[in-house]
Amino acid sequence: MGIEIDILNTAGEVTGRQALDDSVWGIEPNISVMHQALLRQQANARLGTHQTKTRANVRGGGRKPWRQKGTGRARQGSIRAPHWVGGGVVFGPHPRSYTQAMPKQMRRLAIRSVLSAKVRDERVSVVDGLTGIEPKTRTMKALIAKLPESRSVLIVVAEKSEVVDRAAGNLPNVHTIVADVVNVRDVLKYERLLVTPEAIAKIEELWALPEAKRTPSAFKQARLAAANAEVEA
Asked: Do 198 and 155 touch, CB atoms closer than 8 A?
């Protein structure tokens, strides 16, 4: 049996029911994969352009500060050695890539897991006619006020809408994205998803499992049956 959720209009009234694809919105969330995908996304966003100077890069230090023996002071070869103020840095950061790889199936599972977690926690609201509202901040604020109370809202639309961008642009803790770029970090960062029916169709088109993969293979079914038999025994 599929999942269904209320469809609201811009006045906050229920106008119908929206069926959701079980393979996108109804799976058991895989917490470890969600965590790994979040860390990967944050790591891939790092520029890696930090740079420190070694003793070969800092200015000065071309001569020995004093003679080797006879001064009573410790022998020194350069005033730009690491232990001198203004000297080079020994193990400082240098430009590098923080990019992490992740298998495609795990990336897809992470997206389906965060979306399913939102539905399980009743943090998804479907609003029809969102792109036809007045492009005013007060209009969007009034619409969000009709939803269950949330600290932050992520608005997901099927295509970029200047109306929605202008209406939500000045609201704190409200962010707008298109369905094509739904990602783990944004879904986890914002408490409530405000989605249009068109965006749901787009998300399911991108992330739904093919029919052939929705039922476990005979080999997997046999393994599950054996595992269950051991547990019952």
From this structure: no
